[in-house]
Design brief:
Blueprint lengths: L17 H5 L9 E6 L15 E4 L3 E5 L8 E9 L6 E9 L8 E9 L3 E5 L16 E3 L10 E3 L3 E5 L9 E5 L5 E6 L2 E6 L9 H4 L2 E5 L3 E7 L2
Antiparallel strand pairs: 1-6, 2-3, 3-4, 4-5, 6-15, 7-10, 7-12, 8-11, 9-10, 11-14, 12-13, 14-15
């Protein structure tokens, strides 16, 4: 989202070191990555320290890392720039290369630079008794604290702020988001991430198709498939 070294880049980036590339461990390089949910160790944290195969046909960039034989999957990301708008289409593929079914969901994480705020839409308001049933699931983690001042719960939006203070601990929350978007705002730039919600499909983490994580260094805008 921008150019490397340009302050308008909304993504958090960390340059890989030679030690990190050779130690066989997973490292948080930032940027945008493809994982598979639900989150488990060591499966989710498979090291991605090696160069990726890449092809470009003039329109779409295809990125394919080495397969993950321990997990039985092959990942692929396809990136297509819109020819006339500030828009990028990103398709995530996970192929089962094992001999048996693997229950998982594609999980794309956009790691945003510190200092901004994430905006999550609320479902449209309807009064009682017109609306008697819940409109979406919400998932919280053992370290989620709803009293944290980084949260703002409004009528139309929920806001999660990134705070660089080292005293701030991790926060995470997830939603079944039928409106299909979330945003990250930093300075005068707003990144809008759009994604699908398939009614009746089984999503991980109690039915979440989007999740949001922050700590003193980053804020992640995460989307999940069924």
């Amino acid at each position: 989202l921008g150019f490397v070294g340009d302050e308008t880049n909304l993504m958090h980036l960390e340059s890989p070191t030679l030690t990190a590339q050779q130690d066989g461990k997973w490292h948080p390089y930032g940027g945008h990555r493809l994982w598979h949910a639900p989150e488990e160790f060591p499966r989710t944290y498979f090291p991605d320290n090696h160069p990726v195969e890449h092809t470009f046909d003039g329109t779409t960039l295809v990125l394919r890392p080495p397969p993950e034989p321990e997990n039985g999957v092959q990942k692929e990301i396809r990136i297509t720039m819109h020819p006339g708008a500030a828009q990028v289409d990103v398709l995530h593929h996970i192929t089962n290369i094992s001999r048996w079914p693997i229950p998982l969901a594609p999980w794309s994480l956009t790691v945003c630079r510190a200092g901004g705020a994430c905006i999550i839409p609320q479902e449209p308001y309807k009064p009682h008794p017109e609306a008697l049933l819940p409109v979406r699931p919400q998932a919280m983690w053992a370290y989620t604290n709803m009293q944290d001042p980084r949260w703002t719960w409004g009528e139309h939006f929920i806001v999660m702020r990134q705070d660089r203070s080292p005293a701030k601990y991790q926060q995470k929350i997830g939603f079944g988001n039928t409106l299909g978007w979330a945003a990250y705002a930093l300075d005068s730039v707003v990144f809008i991430k759009r994604f699908a919600h398939r009614a009746g499909a089984t999503y991980p983490d109690y039915g979440c198709n989007c999740e949001f994580y922050t700590d003193p260094h980053i804020l992640e805008v995460e989307t999940l498939g069924p």
